[in-house]
Amino acid sequence: MFDKETYAIRRKKLTEKIQHGLIILSGNYTTPFNYASNTFPFRQDSTFLYYIGIDEPGLIALLDTDNGEEYLCGEEPCPDDIIWTGATPTLAQFADMSGINKTINYNQLQMIISKACNKGRKIHFVAPYQAQVSITIGNLLSQHVEKLKSIQSSDLIHAIAEMRKIKEPQEIAEIERAVRTTAIMEQFVIDAATDPACHESENSIRAALFRIFLKEGFFYSFPPIVTTHGEIFHQPFASKERLQKGKILLADIGAESGSHYAGDMTRSVPVGGKFSPKQKEVYNIVLEAQKTVLEVAKPGETWLNVHLAAARIITEGLKEIGIMTGGTDDIINEGAYAMFFPHGIGHLLGLDVHDMENLGEDNFGYSETIKRSHQFGLCNLRYALELKENMTLTNEPGIYFIPYLMQKWKAERRFADFINYDKALKYSDFGGIRIEDDIVITPTGCHILGMEVKKEF
Amino acid sequence: MFDKETYAIRRKKLTEKIQHGLIILSGNYTTPFNYASNTFPFRQDSTFLYYIGIDEPGLIALLDTDNGEEYLCGEEPCPDDIIWTGATPTLAQFADMSGINKTINYNQLQMIISKACNKGRKIHFVAPYQAQVSITIGNLLSQHVEKLKSIQSSDLIHAIAEMRKIKEPQEIAEIERAVRTTAIMEQFVIDAATDPACHESENSIRAALFRIFLKEGFFYSFPPIVTTHGEIFHQPFASKERLQKGKILLADIGAESGSHYAGDMTRSVPVGGKFSPKQKEVYNIVLEAQKTVLEVAKPGETWLNVHLAAARIITEGLKEIGIMTGGTDDIINEGAYAMFFPHGIGHLLGLDVHDMENLGEDNFGYSETIKRSHQFGLCNLRYALELKENMTLTNEPGIYFIPYLMQKWKAERRFADFINYDKALKYSDFGGIRIEDDIVITPTGCHILGMEVKKEF
């Protein structure tokens, strides 16, 4: 947690932007595993962390934008809880950590909200993603949970996103801590997989990563992906078979710092230590695309243009090795490159690994002038607007050979002028390569966060 | 997953017990971490696993007890999902794995249920513990989520519990696998903590345990407790400080097998390798209580009596070292021993570590003749009824010195005739000792599951 001034200042800025009505900031609940009292680790809502900072379940903050009053709503701990879970602060002590001086219980909160509703005051909230929060907010507003999305406050979403997308120095320091632990995890993957005598499996490497981030007192920012099937983007499965020499092991992993800032890195590593010439060719294209991002990304440039600059490098590289053919501009404009690079060049990074995804990417990542593309691949770009100083993002180009997609598009003769399917299908057992670092936008460009992790094999 | 016959037979038994109406068995959903698509590992509902076996989110089974028809309800995978998560079976393929031959979507399910409701047929379901399941069941039955508990089917709960509480041989084999991995984890704790040059912390040992169970492709059955504050039962915190020689490290940990059966063991270990004479005295009482359970537990005996037999050993032991005084029968009857042993002697173990806790312990652990005690401590006994062959339980006596409780009771002069507070308070920095193994009830007694893990230090 930062000092209480930080949260008070952030809340002041937020209420000034909203001007009228009440703001509900709901924290998360613990979620049951297989019965109510056996739970997953608690993860606080990121917006609640940003404005309130208290890392405890079952809390709701209420901000009155008209008179500046702030309330923290929750249950008081029961004295005998000390036997089961040790001593915990009182609600007032928690509130004080965040610079809030009024505490209320759920019934009091309900009364304040009812009164405000009766007076026709606007109640601002963000539609919850956690079902228990939906139930609570639905009850507070006397609305069916499935209606909440349609009555959430677009003003509140924009105000939150505008603040959260530019990071404070103390936030960048926290992201850097998360990235540093992520780098240690990647280094473990590299050492294990490049060992010519490697006896590890995808699963055993993945298991070892948990030890690394948990030892720091950290968690993961997303479930670690450790796979020789890099062409499956969110591969949920990690094989217990011994890694096969000659394969490419892709590890897309992220630690989350104790204060819940995310790291997110990917390395694609030759099992046994050396890429084949065929692998190396593709790898070098991805590496060049990644370097291009570092050159292009700077304040004033749009992230969409950065994406397209990387797509250009990938296109030209694939043309050079004979997998694509035709005019680079046409390939880019029509989106044919997305067969091999079907995701965005990167995303905002912060308290969430896909920062603020729950607020709706279109609400902060696109605008009236830059609208989300309908093109396959480019439609997955999570942020497209201008870069500004102190934004933090991932830089993660990739090239993948997805047998399902190659066969389907070939059958449809899709982009037959641009894609050499006979050549591409020879890469059907290639897998995929992605190289990912985290960057911060500086006054004149950008730089990589955390420490350098080997990228040349 | 077991073979499909297993599930078909179990469902047939269940529907025969229920006789009339529809049974809804709802599977779980994945639960979000910090936004909808960033989720905790999926954990299927245990009752769904028992009768259906399919380890996938978002499924509902419907059993018609009148005509024997069985339906699996879910969404078909979208073909392009293959790019993101790899190939997945179709709904019909999933259904077939469980021996179900009809698949329906959510709207069809809703229609079947509406029709049954209109005809006045009984709809049997268990009140959900997962909020998203509550929302779904609430919508299906047009009921507010908070009403579900009051209209759940007591018949269904009893029928399920009657079946799940006696384990099939293949279930016992799975529990044994989980216990075996749990034993490897405990052995790690013992080796780390008893090393005279120990550099580990509670947190670093806890982190290492994740590597062990994840490497097996297992998960935990509950969040591991690794603490030198054994007197805090569900200590959520693991210190990053180096372990202090002379402390007792309590590790209450459990692996969950790939098929989701739980292990649950505790060892209390001298940091540095040797107990002090004072620690050894208390430890030996707990060890004797644990051995007593092994002698007493057998078919026909109630688990309540087993608890009381262990309580007797603990009482006599504490009298011997001067912490308690007075008549053993009185101490037991009045519950004074619970100051130092404030939890039950053990609980049922199976697909849940506290098996079937979500069904309500009073529904299967107590009866008209054996009602839950209101006594401090004994009220925490999770199961009290007769033992039967092939029940699996934990055997976990403990002695704890809880400063908060000792000070409070002393001030209240509670049980002043039985507790020597001056002596007891000298143990204020002692912590707690618990020793836990998992047992199965045999035709003539019981035996410990898994492999023996060191208990003598």
What does this structure look like?
- The structure is a homodimer of 457-residue chains.
- Chain A is of the alpha+beta class and 457 residues long.
- Chain A has two domains: 4-164, Creatine Amidinohydrolase, Chain A, domain 1; 169-448, Creatine Amidinohydrolase, CATH 3.90.230.10.
- Helices cover 38% and strands 14% of the residues of chain A.
- Chain A has 16 helices and 17 strands.
- Chain A has helices at 4-18, 46-51, 81-85, 91-97, 106-118, 131-141, 148-151, 154-164, 169-194, 202-215, 277-296, 303-320, 328-334, 361-364, 403-411, 421-425, and strands spanning 22-26, 32-35, 38-39, 60-64, 70-73, 102-104, 123-124, 219-220, 225-227, 248-253, 255-256, 265-270, 392-395, 398-400, 432-434, 437-441, 446-448.
- In chain A, the strands form six sheets. The first copy, chain A, has a five-stranded mixed sheet with strand order 6-5-4-1-7, with helices on both faces. A three-stranded antiparallel sheet of chain A has the order 9-10-12, with helices on one face.
- In chain A, strand 2 (32-35) and strand 3 (38-39) form a beta hairpin.
- In chain A, helix 1 (4-18) crosses helix 8, helix 9 (169-194) packs antiparallel against helix 10 and helix 12 packs across helix 13 (328-334).
- The longest helix of chain A is centred in the middle third of the chain and has 26 residues, at 169-194.
- Chain A is globular, with a radius of gyration of 24 Å.
- At the A-B interface, strand 2, strand 3, helix 3, helix 6 and helix 10 of A face strand 2, strand 3, helix 3, helix 6 and helix 10 of B.
